[in-house]
Design goal:
With 158 residues, the chain is α/β, with parallel strands linked by helices. It contains 3 helices and 7 strands. The two termini are 29 Å apart.
């Protein structure tokens, strides 16, 4: 199976969610299933069916997180050579060539992406246009409104 890049912060967040689901949510859900089962007829017991559905969702998410962590290639951005090159995990400060607008993004794994927090997926068109470029280079990104030219002002390894 292929290794999936992930930042240390992303791996830590998944580990915390896994811990929460296994040690806190799982016991609560099991208790809810047992309590609903004690109410009698299971065919018409909506509480029981809801608790079982919640249990199934939680167990599925646990399995999904474990699989993601087992296939993760955790990248420690701070330990990367500071070459000025845009690579996975780096934070990139950009300037739009047309509007002068300044942008700042960190290139992260699929599960970590959150544009409101300035984290874009390695698979996004913007990240693909930036990867491999150096400070001072101009990346052309195909956006829905047309091509955008973005100058790479600074590459940070934080």
């Amino acid at each position: 199976m292929t290794r999936v890049p992930m930042t240390q912060r992303g791996a830590d967040a998944l580990r915390e969610e896994l811990r929460h689901r296994k040690s806190e949510l799982r016991p609560k859900i099991i208790a809810a299933v047992e309590e609903a089962r004690a109410h009698g007829d299971l065919k018409e017991n909506a509480e029981y069916h809801a608790a079982r559905e919640q249990h199934g969702f939680n167990e599925g998410r646990i399995t999904e997180i474990e699989a993601k962590l087992s296939n993760a290639q955790v990248v420690d951005v701070a330990s990367l050579p500071k070459s000025g090159k845009v690579v996975f995990g780096t934070t990139v400060e950009l300037a739009d060539a047309d509007s002068g607008e300044e942008l700042k993004y960190q290139i992260v794994g699929e599960d970590e992406a959150d544009s409101k927090q300035g984290r874009i997926s390695i698979n996004s068109p913007l990240a693909r246009a930036l990867i491999g470029k150096l400070e001072g280079d101009v990346a052309v990104v195909q956006a829905p409104a047309g091509a955008r030219e973005l100058e790479i002002v600074r590459v940070l390894y934080i």
